[in-house]
Write a structure and sequence with these properties.
Elements lengths: L1 H36 L9 H24 L7 H24 L9 H21 L6 H24 L16 H19 L2 H5 L6 H23 L7 H27 L4 H7 L2 H6 L8 H30 L7 H19 L5 H28 L17
Length: about 400
């Protein structure tokens, strides 16, 4: 009996070492190839780039503090949620910058623009990971990042850069990423969980407590504060003030709508609704953040907050029951549906928009995201499963 246990422990230890070695080798190969083939972007010391740098740091706070604490809502999985966030941000930024420097998707923009675009890609990656949160081993989050970023960049190239000639470059309206960032990440994540959710995971309760709920709300507040910088990161300097105000108006609208809708549906306000749906205005206003008027921004926020709350309170339980798949963070409700709403809203808000181009861009994004997510789920499933979902003990010695 002791011999069998010793052999089992040795096998587990060898497996972990193989995982670590594979991940390190993969990252090293990516970094070395980037160093060998990188095409340096033109340096710039303009004040405009300095201003962009400050907004880029705001976005970084969103990625690490905002997303990290928002996803720490699961009791007993806080260490892993924050640790996975650190790993995903690290691999996402590296992968995007290196691939972009290879020139595969055209000439790399300035360094600061590349950083901001890498942050956008990483935000989409974190959204995707939220769908499968708690059911991936820590190295699998890294693998997910390595798979996700190239597919994200292909879709970004097609939708915004005119890649493959499907859409005309610059014809798709999505300044703050309602479609390209939020909807893509959400539906990629949906594809992942459709492929890899097991029967036991489906039956396992996702529990929160008072402490984890407080951390989640802290993440919401961090995201709320810095969301204007996210949407205004690459807009023209003269449009930054109006863009920021539009985003704040949309967030105010979605927060108030979430309170009203949550209490109307549930009888009392739900922390899950407030922590998530309150942000839906920021998701939905993204596509038109530099085009909408302030009243329209408020309206978009109210509609998005209401839609997201209905998603969490009504749609999600029924949809998960039919699909037999678990969206841990409810990213389809916060980023998926409001993101689609924002892309569609652009057809009404933006004067002279090419309706066919906008509709086609939304459709292409959905197809690419779902198919790529299904493929990623298959790959991740082949790499093993967590023994106990939603627990830190498998990844941290302190747990």
């Amino acid at each position: 009996m002791h011999l069998r246990r010793g052999i089992g422990a040795s096998v587990i230890d060898m497996t972990r070492k193989m995982w670590v070695s594979a991940v390190v080798a993969l990252l090293a190969a990516v970094a070395l190839s980037g160093c060998a083939l990188a095409q340096a972007a033109e340096p710039s010391d303009s004040m405009e780039d300095v201003d962009k740098y400050y907004r880029a740091i705001d976005v970084m706070a969103m990625l690490l503090l905002g997303f990290g604490f928002l996803m720490a809502f699961i009791r007993g999985y806080g260490r892993s949620a924050l640790g996975a966030t650190l790993l995903l941000v690290s691999v996402g930024l590296i992968a995007y910058v290196v691939i972009r420097s290879l020139g595969v998707f055209g000439v790399a923009p300035s360094d600061i623009d590349t950083l901001i675009l890498a942050e956008f890609a990483t935000a989409s990656l974190l959204i995707c990971a939220g769908a499968a949160l708690g059911r991936l081993k820590m190295p699998q989050y890294v693998v997910l990042g390595v798979i996700f970023i190239p597919f994200y960049m292909v879709n970004e190239w097609i939708i915004l850069g005119g890649g493959l000639g499907i859409l005309s470059a610059g014809g798709f309206v999505d300044t703050g990423g309602s479609i390209v960032i939020h909807a893509f990440g959400a539906f990629f994540g949906l594809g992942v969980v459709l492929t890899m959710t097991t029967a036991s995971e489906f039956k396992t309760q996702i529990a929160a407590d008072q402490t984890s709920d407080k951390f989640s709300l802290l993440g919401t507040m961090v995201l709320w504060i810095f969301w204007p910088s996210f949407c205004a990161a690459l807009v023209l300097p003269e449009k930054v003030p109006s863009t920021a105000l539009n985003v704040l108006m949309a967030l105010c609208g979605s927060t108030l709508a979430t309170y009203v809708a949550s209490t109307a549906i549930r009888g009392k306000m739900s922390v899950s609704d407030l922590a998530n749906a309150a942000l839906a205005g920021g998701v939905a206003i993204g596509a038109t953040c530099d085009h909408a008027s302030f009243p329209v921004a408020i309206l978009i926020g109210v509609l998005a907050g209401t839609l997201s709350t209905i998603g969490f309170a009504v749609i999600q339980p029924r949809l998960q029951g039919r699909l037999k798949a678990v969206d841990t963070c409810g990213v389809t409700n916060l980023h998926g549906f409001p993101g689609l709403m924002g892309g569609v809203a652009a057809m009404v808000v933006v004067a002279g928009i090419a309706l066919q181009t906008q509709a086609l861009g939304i459709a292409v994004t959905l197809v690419v995201a779902l198919l790529a997510g299904l493929l990623a789920g298959k790959i991740l499933s082949a790499l093993g499963r967590k023994e106990k979902p939603y627990e830190d003990s498998e990844d941290f010695t302190e747990a």
